[in-house]
């Protein structure tokens, strides 16, 4: 298996980024929805938020590296059996997912740092706040973060559904080529 992408195959680095970020984002959405229902007295109240923020910051780093890598080593063309509208929708969904990999953590960062405090990542290091206390920005970031989490969940459902449909019904190897082919 090659490290770089070719016009037909995903390279190992793109696959690693894809699955690391995919699992993390699905976990983050689940954790985000779970933790907002907890009360202050729940023992997971602080811990779940700390994990959510820390993992979110690591996803931001991974997404920036992934996009950088993709600019250097472009991903393969979509499979040739796709109809024109399938190709177009696959590209739109992939672009939207890439955008959400950045915007979700950035709005999360803005919520966390809008009180002027840094974000601590798993007690390993701090990411400093770039803004001072700002109530309007905090409210906007909360709203965007909330709606974008739902939008991302819908995009993921469509994306996974299409990958499985192509693999199982069309038998065109879509899923396999993101795994080991
Ligand atoms: C269990 C969940 C997932 C499955 C089964 C899956 C499957 C796949 C497959 C098979 C492809 C290759 C499509 C092609 O051949 O053109 C792909 C590409 C892609 N997937 Fe996923 N995916 C999953 C989750 C996610 C998540 C959560 C994200 C982002 C939040 C994501 C973002 C992308 C992107 C951006 C691409 C385009 C290629 C790239 O930039 O690496 N996927 N996915």
CATH level 1 name: Mainly Alpha
- Per DSSP E runs of 2 or more residues, the count of β-strands stands at 2
- Runs in which pLDDT lies below 50 for 5 or more consecutive residues are none
Question: Could you say which structural class the secondary elements and strand pairing correspond to?
Answer: mainly alpha
**Domain unit count:** 1
In CATH terms, the superfamily is Transmembrane di-heme cytochromes, Chain C
CATH topology: the name is: Fumarate Reductase Cytochrome B subunit
What shape does the CA trace take? Answer: elongated
- Numbering strands along the chain, what is their spatial order in the largest sheet? 1-2
Order of helices and strands: HHHEEHH
CATH architecture descriptor: Up-down Bundle
Determine the mean pLDDT: 96
Number of helices: 5
Relative strand content: under 5%
Sheet with most strands: 2 strands, antiparallel
Ligand roster: protoporphyrin IX containing FE
**Radius of gyration from CA coordinates:** 18 Å
- Share of helix, binned: 55-70%
Distance, first to last CA: 8 Å
In short:
The chain is mainly alpha-helical and 181 residues long. The chain is built from 5 helices and 2 strands, in the order αααββαα. The longest helix has 34 residues.
Structural overview:
- This protein has about 180 residues and is mainly alpha-helical.
- The protein has a single domain (about 10-175), classed as Up-down Bundle (Fumarate Reductase Cytochrome B subunit).
- Helix content is about 65%, strand content about 5%.
- The protein is built from five helices and two strands; from the N terminus they run αααββαα.
- A two-stranded antiparallel sheet has the order 1-2.
- The chain is elongated.
- The mean pLDDT is about 95.
């Amino acid at each position: 298996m090659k490290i770089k992408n070719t016009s037909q195959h995903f390279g190992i680095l793109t696959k690693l980024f894809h699955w690391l970020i995919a699992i993390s984002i699905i976990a983050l959405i689940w954790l985000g929805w779970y933790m907002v229902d907890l009360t202050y007295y729940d023992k997971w109240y602080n811990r779940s938020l700390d994990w959510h923020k820390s993992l979110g910051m690591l996803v931001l780093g991974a997404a920036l590296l992934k996009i950088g890598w993709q600019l250097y080593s472009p991903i393969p063309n979509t499979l040739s059996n796709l109809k024109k509208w399938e190709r177009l929708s696959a590209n739109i969904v992939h672009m939207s997912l890439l955008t959400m990999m950045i915007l979700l953590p950035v709005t999360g960062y803005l919520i966390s740092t809008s009180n002027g405090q840094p974000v601590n990542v798993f007690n390993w290091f701090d990411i400093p706040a770039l803004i001072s206390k700002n109530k309007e920005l905090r409210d906007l970031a909360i709203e965007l973060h909330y709606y974008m989490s739902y939008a991302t969940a819908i995009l993921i459902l469509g994306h996974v559904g299409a990958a499985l449909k192509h693999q199982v019904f069309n038998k065109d190897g879509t899923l396999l080529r993101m795994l080991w082919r």
